[in-house]
Amino acid sequence: MSYVLWALLAMVCYSFAFLFMKIALQELPAFTVMPIAVLTLAVGATTVAALYGDWSAQSLTSRFVPFALLAGLCLTGAMVGYFRALSTGPVSIVVPVFGMFLVGGALLGILVLWEAVTARKVATGPAVPVSSPSKLWAIRGIHCPNRNACF
Question: In this structure, are residues 68 and 22 in contact, taking their beta carbons and an 8 Å threshold?
């Protein structure tokens, strides 16, 4: 499957994950929902890795394993922060703020990994963090005092 299809699958799954997490958080504490969701993720990811043949015990001795561990620590911070925020705030605010990791990740890719800045990336970049028309207005520097009047 191409990386675009994988990205679309991720987008759809993440969209529903936010919904299901918020529903679960209506009755369960954040630090109960989080381990359940993360354990489900771990089992699912390990199963997919095994099915696709990408799982290798030999790769655990690679010099890149510390980066995988650092990624795990960062994901831990992201999930703890996200679950805590979602347990106390509205999904319509928490998800767009959390979703700005896309912009941060893209910038780090350019600044740290020296990924090329292309006209296509510049043209589509501002659309990535847009989760609602009001965000688009804000990105373009336009103030919309009456949300319903701007659309």
Answer: no
